[in-house]
Specification:
The chain has 207 residues and is mainly alpha-helical. 68% of the residues lie in helices and 0% in strands. The longest helix is centred in the middle third of the chain and has 22 residues.
Length: 207
């Protein structure tokens, strides 16, 4: 990874004291908020498939729930997930980057299951904020050369909601006495907007 942002450094410290299943749980929760963004892109572009991305993320949840990770299945899932990432040159839609972020975030977590490098989880979380960064600039018509651009993006309600949710997830995961299916269910329920991604877009094809 390139030089880390302050938020990435903080996440790396917080995740660093957790076991690998808890690290994966945090990343998976972040990715759940990206899948509806991909679904919205599919509806807009009439291209793509959510199924390989969903299946890849389900492999991560399987590891969280049961500690099971098969490298062959994971490598196949990475390939299929990468194939679902749209190319920017092929689409002019606003959500193309958000769709890419959803794919790459899940791929980063799948890589984590093979390498157990905490920076892969941090990277997945960063894709969640990157999606908001570009989206907010467009919908709010923010000039790219504005001197206060970064602060305006940081202060935007979508960015603040995602950053707050990441910290809420961290606290829940850190304080959970045990992990498993019930833990995973409760973690997913912390997101207050079921069916919506972190861009505020509704899942239109079913997750």
């Amino acid at each position: 990874m390139p030089k880390m942002t302050p938020n990435q450094e903080r996440l790396k410290r917080q995740l660093g004291v957790m076991d690998n299943r808890r690290k994966a749980a945090f990343g998976a929760a972040c990715c759940e908020r990206l899948l509806p963004n991909y679904a919205a892109f599919m509806e807009q572009a009439n291209w793509g498939s959510l199924e390989p991305i969903r299946q890849g993320l389900d492999l991560v949840w399987l590891y969280v729930d049961q500690g099971l990770a098969d490298n062959n299945n994971i490598m196949r899932a990475v390939v299929l997930c990468e194939e679902m990432a749209p190319h920017s040159d092929d689409f002019s839609f606003l959500l193309v980057t958000a769709a890419q972020d959803a794919c790459f975030a899940v791929c980063a977590l799948l890589d984590f299951l093979m390498e157990f490098d905490v920076e892969k989880v941090v990277q997945a979380a960063e894709y969640a904020t990157d999606s908001i960064d570009l989206y907010v600039q467009e919908i709010e018509s923010m000039p790219p050369n504005s001197p206060d651009l970064e602060q305006r993006i940081l202060n935007h309600v979508l960015m603040q909601r995602e950053l707050s949710q990441q910290q809420l997830d961290i606290e829940f995961i850190k304080n959970a006495s045990t992990i498993g299916q019930e833990f995973s269910k409760r973690l997913r329920q912390l997101w207050p907007l079921p069916g919506q991604g972190n861009l505020g877009l509704t899942d239109v094809v079913g997750l």
